[in-house]
Amino acid sequence: MLRAPYRISIYHNWAIQLQLLLDWEDAARLAFEEAFEAGIIDRPVELVSREVWGAPNGSALEVGAAMRDIVANDRVHAMIGLAMTEDCAVLRQEINEKMKIPVLTFAATTGFDGEYCFSAPCGTFMDEAPVIAAFIKSQGFERFAMIHDTSFQGEEYGEALRASARHANLEIACCESINSVAPEAEVIEKLQLAKAAGVEAFAYVGVGMQFKQLAAAFRKLDWNPKLRMTGLTFCGANPGFDGPTQYEGWYGLDQYHEGNETLMKMAVAFQKRFGRDGSHMWAAHGYDEGRVMALALGNASPPSRAGIRAAMEKIRMLPAAVGCPGNHISYGPYDHRGYKGDYFTIRRINEGRNELVGVPSQFLASL
């Protein structure tokens, strides 16, 4: 007799129906299938997919309503997803105190904490900011201009970059903020102020919704500073998002490293299983999150929501597909942030090629 499957909610609240995020779900599916075949779990996993647009495009209230329905009616053991920082901030307390379901997010924030909140983050604003500052400093610049957007994420990121610049003894010659849906004229006006500061280094940080307009504004103003840099917004250079053309000449942060053996092995298995290229950071995230949850399911005693939460805290030194060689995943009773090591990279688009520039630790060491 076949055992009833484990049921895991996979919750899309961002980039809904984008192929790269469908790859994220399929990579998690691959991880669960491999775990079942290897005997790590004693039954297959059924992924229960739900799509609700979260903030800033949608509403954290709608995301919360859907989560309550999932927890009450979908009979799931745990959840993977809840990707947007603002949604995590709004729902964190309710998840810990009322829902009491393990949630594994890739949201880029340190603010998703508590008994049932776990992360394997897609960067983190407070981690990305010192790396950006260190890289600007390493390239010989003493001052730069920055623009951040006024979203929940953008304000957190802007504050972190200002603090990191002070630590790196960098002068911020111009600091402007802009609404994530501001019109073209306002974007150009803000960038003109940055250009007028007379700097040769520029950084844009935030949720990333203004990147295309900002890149176009550089062309309209015919401004080509020696260094233009962004954070994980750079992942938009992947084919399937905006592609590399918009990012030509930019440096940025990504979570893909061609030397990561865990990622490369997963990509081969992903191609064989689904007939698509899985060698990108979103498939890497899905694979990591699926393996974390599979290990927790296999070790939970009993496999209840509370048991899975406790088992997640015992996962140690799991090689990660995300990030650089040596990056791994470890949790603990008071440590629910999984990645340990260089979990993102510095890359650039050079004549259409997405090139590896370096890893965070090599630039942070120079401060």
UniProtKB/TrEMBL annotation:
Leucine-binding protein domain location: 23-338
Coiled coil: none
Keyword set, alphabetical order: Signal
InterPro entries linked to this entry: BCAA_transport, Leu-bd, Peripla_BP_I
Annotated Pfam families: Peripla_BP_6
Family: Belongs to the leucine-binding protein family.
Protein name as catalogued: ABC transporter substrate-binding protein
Species this chain originates from: Noviherbaspirillum sedimenti
